[in-house]
Design a protein that fits this description.
Elements: E1 4-7, E2 18-21, E3 30-34, H1 39-59, E4 63-68, E5 71-77, H2 83-88, H3 98-108, E6 117-121, H4 127-134, E7 138-143, H5 148-154, E8 163-167, E9 176-181, E10 184-189, H6 212-226, E11 232-237, E12 240-246, H7 251-267, H8 271-274, H9 284-295, H10 299-304, H11 308-311, H12 321-329, E13 334-338, H13 346-352, E14 356-361, H14 368-377, E15 381-384
Parallel strand pairs: 6-7, 7-8, 13-14, 14-15
Antiparallel strand pairs: 1-2, 3-8, 4-5, 4-6, 9-10, 11-12, 11-13
Helix pairs in contact: 1-6, 3-4, 4-5, 7-13
Length: 392
């Protein structure tokens, strides 16, 4: 370990010099095992590590996250994958350990946004997870350790320059944190708020029933929001994030953005999408981009241009708006968390369209009664956590 690490540059190439260091003179809690991580890499690494560490502590399950620009594209715990999820995550040819399942789920939440991600694991990286990562476009990884085989696999990525960071799992930061902005130093107590089932005790809707799986998913959404740039809303289902709306100026835009991503996650499982026949040699990122276009309302315009011939072995039948609406109408059991209160019931109206049945939010709006009333209209269960989770 060392006290400081010099970086190539800061957020942009013109921002020099750049380094990370310990103000107290102690050693950094990380070791770089391969590559040369940059300023933004480390911002992603430290935020994502905190997220997966808390997810593991809260659920008792291995956890993983996929980060881009200091917000999670996805996060998940290591539950087994269905055959459908294996196929849409492009891992149906692999044997997956629990921690590999967690990362496959985290990256699968929003594969478009996870392109070039920073990966975080709560547990030691094994060969199965490294094999999965080796064939995806990713900038780096942070974990508490690596098996010899996993490290050897990861060192083959990016012509040997893939960023591999090991963190001391016992490291505890100081309770007071600082940040400089425009030459002014900000100081605050670290957000050590513990998120667990006790936070979901105040159910304010007529429907008081939140099953164990939904509680787990609400906890996943809330811990994810704790490390997502605000304003933010998170949809979760079956042990993983399925849509994050981050950094928006209004709550409804967060809800719409996250809901649209959750809809894409769901539509990727439609039989017509699963049945797409790509040409041999089409790269994963190109498949992801094409699937997103196929799902969108723009597909007919692209089809008219004849682009499909370069991507598909045979001409796909369009997925109509009616078929998409029918498929999404069948979705249910989705959990939604919000980092601050919902000011209007329109957020609930939008969430319902993506299958949301369970909600966790701080409460405290002057229109709480309207939000509760909207939940009651659709039989949703909503808990007021009393805790805001802004992150900047």
């Amino acid at each position: 370990m060392a006290n400081e690490l010099m970086l190539k540059y800061g957020c942009n190439p013109n921002q020099k010099p750049s380094r990370i260091f310990m103000k107290d003179g102690g050693d950094l809690p990380i070791r770089v095992l391969n590559g040369k991580p940059g300023y933004i890499n480390f911002l992603d690494a430290f935020n994502s590590w905190q997220l997966v560490k808390e997810l593991k502590e809260a659920t008792g399950l291995p956890a993983a996250a996929s980060f881009k620009h200091v917000s999670p594209a996805g996060a998940a715990v290591g539950l087994p994958l269905s055959d459908t999820l294996k196929k849409i995550y492009f891992v149906d040819d692999l044997e997956l350990s629990p921690i590999a399942c967690a990362y496959a789920r985290a990256r699968g939440a929003d594969r478009m946004s996870s392109y070039g991600d920073w990966a975080a694991l709560s547990d030691v990286c094994d060969a199965q997870t490294a094999t999965l990562l080796a064939r995806e476009v990713s900038d780096g990884i942070i974990a508490p350790g690596y098996t010899e085989e996993a490290l050897a696999i990861l060192k083959t990525k990016r012509k040997g320059n893939y960023n591999v960071v090991e963190i001391d799992p016992d490291y505890r930061p100081a309770p007071i944190e600082h940040k400089d902005v425009f030459g002014v130093t900000f100081e605050q107590g670290r957000n050590e708020m513990k998120i667990d089932e006790a936070m979901l005790a105040n159910v304010v809707t007529d429907n008081k029933e939140i099953p164990a799986d939904a509680k787990r998913d609400l906890i996943i959404s809330l811990i994810t929001l704790k490390y997502t740039q605000s304003n933010s809303v998170c949809y979760a289902k079956d042990g993983q994030v399925i849509g994050v709306g981050a950094g928006q100026q209004s709550r409804i835009h967060c809800t719409r953005l996250a809901g649209n991503k959750a809809d894409v996650w769901s539509l990727r499982q439609h039989p017509k999408v699963l049945g797409l026949k790509f040409r041999e040699g089409i790269r994963r990122p190109d498949r992801d981009n094409t699937i997103d276009v196929y799902i969108s309302d723009e597909y007919m315009d692209v089809l008219a241009d004849g682009v499909w011939e370069t991507l598909f072995a045979e001409k796909p039948e369009p997925l109509t708006r009616e078929e998409k609406a029918q498929w999404l109408a069948q979705q249910s059991g989705v959990s939604l968390g919000s980092d601050a209160f919902f000011p209007f019931g329109d957020n609930i109206e939008r969430a319902r369209k993506s299958g949301v049945q369970y909600v966790a939010q701080p409460g405290g709006s002057i229109r709480d009664d309207h939000v509760i009333e909207t939940c009651n209209k659709y039989g949703m269960a909503m808990a007021f956590t009393g805790v805001r989770l802004f992150h900047h």
